[in-house]
Amino acid sequence: MVRNRGRRVETEQMKPQNVINDFTDICRRILGENLVGVYLHGSAAMGCFHPKLSDLDFIAVVEESVPDAAKLDFLGELVPLHAHAPAKGIEMSIIRREFCERFAYPTPFELHFSAMHLNRLLKNPQAYAKEMKGTDKDLAAHFTVLKKCGIVLWGKRIEAVFGAVPPEAYTDSICGDIENAPEEIAENPMYMTLNLCRVLAWLQKGAILSKREGGEWGLAALPQEFRGLPALALRCYEAGEEMKIEPEAGKRFAAYMKKEILRIRDSRERECRKG
Fold first, then answer.
1. Residue 257: CB partners within 8 Å, gap ≥ 6?
2. Does residue 167 lie within any of the structural domains?
3. How many domains does the chain have?
4. Do 120 and 200 belong to one domain?
5. CA pair distance 173, 142, nearest whole angstrom
6. 181 and 73, same structural domain?
7. Cα–Cα dist 64/97, whole Å
């Protein structure tokens, strides 16, 4: 049973490594012999985890589909762990091995959870366990990062489980995340500023970067008039502070970055069609 104690209120935070260890233990106990491996990706694997700003990102790989009853048991233990995790909690997906080895896009998943789905889960756990199964374009980005610097928490080696992710799938995945950047940057300026930088860095130089590395790249590579926001975002990121910006400045930065990103992406797509 999923209880309301999973709500992120008045809970004592655990150390990130303890959350990682407990998540791995939940996977091993509940998924049992079906479990192929448990993997850490995202900021914790890229060396830029910040307890006030980052979530812990996991992928669990299974051989066969997971029954709804097992999903409910899994979620029943995941929710209280999420409540005690660092600020942004846990994001995780369970995926069948066949879709990791022979990559499909968008990628099918057995179960997904993140903070944005918590209320839906608590409202009706049975429906959540049954319905939270589909495809997710974000997994192309997660797999790409995992193959670059992911950490095996338990199970088979990354190269034995995860096949190649086509660059065009990774591009489509990360570009989808900045589609509404000019409208959204005022709401989440730090994330959007750093994310725009790392997306453009990928398209310009093929670099797979963390948010912090993306900001550092932007500070060095962008036109001078657009370096102010990455500089501020990096300072706030390192300090764990809220980033505040002038709405118009944020909109100008995001519009410029989105235009450059789409210009390069669309140019490459036209070249591919010609080829």
1. 178, 181, 196, 197, 199, 200, 226
2. no
3. 2
4. no
5. 9
6. no
7. 8
DSSP tag of 222: S
pTM exceeding 0.90: yes
Say if CB 57 and CB 42 are below 8 A apart.
yes
Domain span at residue 23 reads 4-161
Please give the structure tokens belonging to residue 137: 């374009």
What is the Cα–Cα distance from 199 to 209, expressed in whole angstroms? 8
pLDDT band, very low/low/confident/very high, at 248 (cuts 50, 70, 90): very high
Whether 166 maps to a domain, the answer reads no
What confidence score (pLDDT) does residue 10 get? 43
196 and 157 inside one domain: no
Domain match, 25 and 148 both: yes
Q: What mean pLDDT do residues 190-197 have?
A: 97
36 with 104, same domain: the answer is: yes
Q: Where are the beta strands (DSSP E) in the chain?
A: 35-41, 56-62, 90-96, 107-109, 111-113, 134-136, 151-155
CATH classification at residue 83: 3.30.460.10
* pLDDT tens-digit readout, 152-179: 999 999 999 999 999 999 999 999 999 9
pLDDT digit string, tens, across residues 7-55:
344 457 899 999 999 999 999 999 999 999 999 999 999 999 998 889 9
Q: How confident is the model at residue 120 (pLDDT cuts 50, 70, 90)?
A: very high
